[in-house]
């Protein structure tokens, strides 16, 4: 068995040993959508999603209540037991309940809702980032495997040529130096193949670490004709951050003093042993005074946060527009490059066929034949890369539009 085939088996043996899983079809294939979903499930953002949503729900529930903070209970017991011991007893209980004013309560509820909306925007943006990482990993691995296939064919062709040259040397048609040149070409091809094998293994490990999936999806993503940037997850997240900063600024401007407190009291007392206990109740309200100076630092911080968030949203929109335009241009250039590479490969293959026949008839020397082989290999490799680069450009355009697979 040829050395190139041994390398191919070594690279693909781990893939052949795997059984189809829940992300695979009946034929063992896997889709980009499924791989992105698998990578998202492995991500830190995904694993913390439920806890963050529970936190947002807890803040919403807390903000919708009328109590600004937990109530406090004060208990006081008074007696003359340590001095006169005439029977004077007094027990007093006082419950203090901090209350939110309607305006503060509404502002707090709006902030909690904005926090929940901002969380969902952040999660969508994080998922899109995972999709970008998966897309790049998939195409990098596909490019590496394309180079592996091409280099395996190159090794097989150079080995066949070296065997033919060796036969003709023994027949006396070629010089021994030609055999040495042919065998040197085999060694060069094998060295290049070894480098590509190492690259494929590296890309495979990085892909598996990211996704937890062994198989590489075979499906491609067509380039979208158009897209709605206003629905882009990154832009939604930026707008959510601006809305949250705006809600915090409003809340800071509304709560200019501490919360008022409802005070409920009960007192039970007597003057001496011969008197009956008298019970009294009381209801009171504590109204703290406040001023703008109390919340001036909070208002300043919230205002700075709002300015930063709005500026970020504006810059994000400009950046996304630029990315879409650049990605569209890349798609067109990739398609043109694929067309040119296909024509180059056709010409190189035709020239190779002619020069192979010429070499068989002794019309050209071995270096000319090797140059033809190298030109055909380079053209074939460039065509495979151009096709993959065209697919990657389409995938990047979908990413620029904020579209998941």
TrEMBL record:
Residues 109-168 form a coiled coil. It is found in: Cell outer membrane. One of its GO terms (cellular component) is cell outer membrane. GO terms for molecular function: efflux transmembrane transporter activity; porin activity. Keywords: Cell outer membrane, Coiled coil, Membrane, Transmembrane, Transmembrane beta strand. It comes from the Bacteria. InterPro entries: TolC-like (IPR051906). The keyword Transmembrane applies. This is Outer membrane protein, cobalt-zinc-cadmium efflux system. It comes from Aromatoleum tolulyticum.
